[in-house]
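Marked as duplicate of an earlier ticket. Keeping the data here for the record.
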Amino acid sequence: MKSAELNQRRLQATPRGVGVMCSYFAEKAENATLWDVEGNEVIDFAAGIAVLNTGHRHPKVIAAVEKQLQAFTHTAYQIVPYESYVSLAERINELAPIEGPAKTAFFTTGAEAVENAVKIARAYTKRPGLITFGGGFHGRTFMTMALTGKVAPYKIGFGPFPGSVYHAVYPNAAHGVTTGDALKSLDRIFKADIAADQVAAIVLEPIQGEGGFNVAPPEFMQALRELCDTNGILLIADEVQTGFARTGKLFAMEYYDIKADLMTMAKSLAGGFPLSGVIGRAEVMDAPAPGGLGGTYAGNPLAVAAAHAVLDVIAEEQLCKRATQLGEHLKEVLNQARQSCPAIADVRGQGSMVAVEFNDPQSGKPSPEITREIQQKAQEQGLLLLSCGVYGNVIRFLYPLTIPDAQFTKALAILARVLKG
């Protein structure tokens, strides 16, 4: 078998630290469908970990990249700039929920975007401190590992990490953590660890990704904004996983009455091509001196061309509206399944950023075992699902928002069968 042979080669040639979930290997893909090297068809509800909101190989994205390939593939923007970078920044500045004039800088990965947001915040405030939240995920580089609020598997064996990073508690209704609890944890940090006037930024995901698709309550976001304004702290929204129509809005921050000072983005921004960005208030973004931001591949022209096409597709195909419709249908199926699947402890999410959490019906404790079993059974029936959560007991749904209706219905039928046992 091709996959078995390839797996043996993979084990010989690549390190175990790069964990690989599937035992099969991709050969081709189209929209929400993957085919492996043996010709098996898979419905892709992982989408490269939230990268393919516009699906595999969307024709408009492919056409935009092909056109750019015929012009040039690389100059390094900070050496020889190009119009497409500037016009993409203008589009993002117009679309993103930032107060007043905004500016955007482009990078390559989500972690790189978060690192640069930290640099910008420290340059603007002249302060060292950073506060993030338990369950948050911000990347695998050293600063973003420090920011991440989950030890296994991201931090094991890699310390020590950069200092002046403190973790507060994130609200989580399913686990009995209230907004009041979260705010008290911030107060404890200010009393025990670092003075508020030494904190540059509070960094959070409006909906935690790896942490289990936990949605920040509006009153919590309001309180954070007031806390930041009172103490001269910047609020950074990490929208790497939530961005670009996944939640039913272009950005999850649009669900709140408040605005962040800085936002990070990546993943679905460029439809499968490596591109990330930081957008923020113009005066904040201008804090670093010339040369302080950048990178050899930052704002790669092929990825920038893809991102222009992605924004066009989101608007033309009304993917924000579609995300809401698909998510409502999915939640209906999951809530119906609770009648026959007592392990379902919670169904939550915003738009198509939906998750289902599993606990052991006898003990009531989080059950990664049940979660893995459901994930495996779905995979055997041709449906690819991802897990997440601090306890590994959450399944998240990250299908392309362009998925055909008939295929979505088929996938939900598989899901209902698997949950029924």
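See parent ticket for discussion. The first strand starts at residue 26 and ends at 30.
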